[in-house]
Write a structure and sequence with these properties.
- There is one protein chain.
- The chain is an alpha+beta fold.
- It is about 35% helix and about 25% strand.
- It is built from five helices and eleven strands.
- The chain has helices at about 1-15, 20-65, 70-80, 165-170, 210-220, and strands at about 65-70, 90, 95, 95-105, 110-120, 130, 150-160, 175-180, 185-190, 200, 200-205.
- The strands form four sheets. It has a five-stranded antiparallel beta sheet with strand order 6-5-4-7-8, covered by helices on one side. A two-stranded parallel ribbon has the order 1-11. The protein has a two-stranded antiparallel sheet with strand order 2-3.
- Helix 2 packs antiparallel against helix 3 (about 70-80).
- It is elongated, with a radius of gyration of 29 Å.
C-alpha cells in the first residue's frame, strides 16, 4: 500500500498534463484586460483629437466673420458637433459636449477681458468683462510682448467620455481643449472704447450686414 502511494506521488510530481491550461487560466484575464484597455485608450485618444479639431474649427469659422448674428452663431455651433462623428454627442437627452466661443480683447496695458460669449450650454458662456490671462505667444509681433490692443476669438470644447471598461474606477473623463485665433476680417472696436482693437461683433439681436469681401475689398464696413 505504501509502495503504491509512493509510486503515485512520484508520478504526480512529474505529471505535466494540464500545465498549459492552468497557465492560460492565469494569464487570460490579464491579456483580456490589456486588449480591452487598449481599445478604450484608442477611443479616448481619437475622441481627444476630435475635441481639438472642433475647438480649432469653431474659432476658425467665427474668425472669418466681421460680425456674427445669433442665427449664424447657432449654425456654426450646431455644425461643429458633426466633427465628433462617429462618436455620440448626446446620451439620451443629455449633451456630452459643450462648445463655448468668446471674443476677448485687451487694452493698452495688455489686460484682456471678455467682450461677448455664447455657449451650447446654458451655463457655459463666460461673463462679459471677465479678466482673461493671456500668453505672450498670442502677441501680434515681438514688439508687442504684452498683447496690447489686440482682439482674439477663444473657442473652448469639452466632451464627457465614459469608458466602458473601468468606469467604476475612473468614472467619466472630461476631455477638453481650447484655441485662440486672431480675427481675419474684423471691424473697429465700438466708438466708446478707449483702445483701437479690432474684433468680431456679436449680438443676439443683430443681423449680419457686412461680408469678409465687403470689408477687405470694398472697405464699406
Amino acid at each position: 500500500m505504501i509502495a503504491v502511494l509512493s509510486s503515485r506521488a512520484r508520478h504526480l510530481r512529474t505529471d505535466a498534463r494540464g500545465v498549459a491550461a492552468t497557465e492560460f487560466a492565469i494569464v487570460a484575464p490579464f491579456m483580456l484586460l490589456l486588449y480591452i484597455g487598449g481599445v478604450e485608450l484608442g477611443n479616448g485618444l481619437a475622441m481627444n483629437v476630435k475635441v481639438s479639431a472642433t475647438a480649432h474649427s469653431v474659432a476658425d469659422m467665427v474668425s472669418q466673420n466681421t460680425q456674427v448674428s445669433a442665427a449664424r452663431m447657432q449654425a456654426i455651433l450646431g455644425a461643429a458637433t458633426a466633427i465628433m462623428a462617429p462618436y455620440a454627442v448626446k446620451n439620451g437627452s443629455t449633451s456630452l459636449m459643450t462648445i463655448t466661443v468668446s471674443g476677448v480683447s485687451t487694452d493698452s496695458n495688455g489686460n484682456a477681458t471678455v467682450q461677448w460669449s455664447t455657449s451650447t450650454s446654458s451655463s457655459g458662456a463666460r461673463t462679459v468683462g471677465q479678466q482673461m490671462p493671456l500668453s505672450q505667444f498670442t502677441a501680434t509681433n515681438p514688439s508687442n510682448p504684452n498683447n496690447a490692443n489686440i482682439s482674439l476669438i477663444l473657442s473652448e470644447v469639452s466632451y464627457d467620455y465614459t469608458p466602458n471598461l473601468g468606469y467604476t474606477i475612473a468614472g467619466t473623463v472630461k476631455l477638453t481643449d481650447s484655441y485662440y485665433l486672431f480675427p481675419r476680417c474684423s471691424t473697429n472696436s465700438p466708438a466708446t472704447s478707449s483702445f483701437p482693437y479690432y474684433d468680431v461683433k456679436y449680438s443676439s439681436t443683430m443681423t449680419t450686414t457686412c461680408t469678409c469681401v465687403q470689408h477687405l475689398q470694398q472697405k464699406t464696413c
